[in-house]
Amino acid sequence: MSRSVLYMSMSLDGFIAGPDDGPENGLGTGGEQLHAWLFDGDHEARGGVGLPVLRTDAASVPVVQEMLATGAVLTGRRTFEAAGGWGGDHHDGVHIEVFTRSEAGDDAVQGPNVRYATDGIEAAMARAKEAAGDRDVMVHGATTAQLALQAGVLDELEIHQVPVLLGAGRSLFGAPGSPHQLDLVRVIDAPGVTHLRYRVVG
Amino acid sequence: MSRSVLYMSMSLDGFIAGPDDGPENGLGTGGEQLHAWLFDGDHEARGGVGLPVLRTDAASVPVVQEMLATGAVLTGRRTFEAAGGWGGDHHDGVHIEVFTRSEAGDDAVQGPNVRYATDGIEAAMARAKEAAGDRDVMVHGATTAQLALQAGVLDELEIHQVPVLLGAGRSLFGAPGSPHQLDLVRVIDAPGVTHLRYRVVG
Fold it and tell me: With an 8 Å Cβ cutoff, are A181 and B164 in contact?
């Protein structure tokens, strides 16, 4: 059965980007460390045209393979734009649903498989799941994750926990959210990152 | 060599207590889940007179044994008072250094091995290390941890990561802190908790 899975790299102190992140400063001061595990290894994986070539350690390969086997992407707009919209293709040309609270606008990154969702998180997730078919939906972005959790439409979380304290930055769970019970269903201890897979159970 | 080690139970979203924690409400709403791993197992361990009898799963036993083998406790005052000062004895009557920014006052929990430190985190840690001899120092409390990190006197972190999202509460790393590089040196995946041991390397 198709699941919706949040994939995010996070520091031990809960940040997904360092201070002063933005189009001019990428993942913020120190934030690039959160993605080092994706580029510091020997095992190459290719996504779509707009995703950099990934080079991970062997231990992280299954996680990357799962990520690239998802059948659709549901992403928050900030995350989407910070990544340059992956050139409109995260991997294999799968549908990209961009959750936003305002209209796309003229300067929005477009693509044949990109759709801006302004009708709420449940509708956005429903379209992403429809597009994914029997494959999983890759979820991305802090606000999108929080809203999906609150709406009960997030099935799992794959947290790539990175052994660093950034001290400040953009927090994954910084805004007050809803309480949820989780089951830890997998731990992969890879060099430079611990992949923690949780199922949302309540 | 004696190390200073932060021991804290933390939710995936970074909380060490739920909302509205305090003397009347313990670990706050939902916060007791963070300590369930200490009481839901079959393996009994006893600390000092004021520490409840611990009953953990077999996988968590080494972590508890290490904690109870420390030679001194350095704790923030809030954490100390929330625990009733452990009756003045956390385990084996070891020295308890209580970090505080105000004077102890008449209603402060006292004990023959309890000392209130008002002369800063470095002095407090120095006394705790002196008292611990060649054993480790158990560090406790969010503010104390942050100040020890900033002062460069925290050697390791043992984070008991609990598979729950509390959504709100008291955050371990909520206040802006200093950036630090960590090495993950041990992962113990136990029922209801993942013990993550980090060494502070920069």
Answer: yes
Q: What is the pLDDT of residues B80-102, one digit of tens each?
A: 988 889 989 999 999 999 999 88
Give dist(CA B5, CA A200) in Å, integer. 31
Lowest mean pLDDT among A141-145, A196-200, B25-29: B25-29
Query: Distance (Å, rounded) from C-alpha A17 to C-alpha A20?
Result: 9
Neighbours of A125 (CB within 10 A): 26
* DSSP structural state of residue A26: B
Supply angle C-alpha A156, A160, A166, rounded to 5: 125
In the predicted structure, residue A75 carries a pLDDT above the cut 90: yes
Which domains, ranges and CATH numbers included, belong to chain B? 4-200 (3.40.430.10)
* Residue among A190, A193, A183, A186 nearest A161 (CA): A193
**pTM given for the model:** 0.94
Q: Which residues pair with B200 in a beta bridge?
A: B182
- Which residues lie below 8 Å from residue B169, measured CB to CB, with a gap of 6+? B11, B15, B16, B17, B18, B19, B21, B28, B29, B30, B31
d(CA B138, CA A108): 52
A180 vs B contacts (CB less than 8 Å): 164-165, 167
Q: Buried (b) or exposed (e) across B150-160, using 16+ Cβ within 10 A?
A: eeebbbbbbbb
Contact A173 B165 (CB under 8 A): yes
In 3D space, the residue among B43, B197, B52, B74 whose CA is nearest the CA of residue B144 turns out to be B74
CB-nearest to A179 from B159, B166, B173 is: B166
List residues of B whose CB lies inside 8 A of any A CB: 12-14, 30, 149, 157, 159, 161, 163-168, 171-173, 176-184, 187, 189, 194, 196, 198
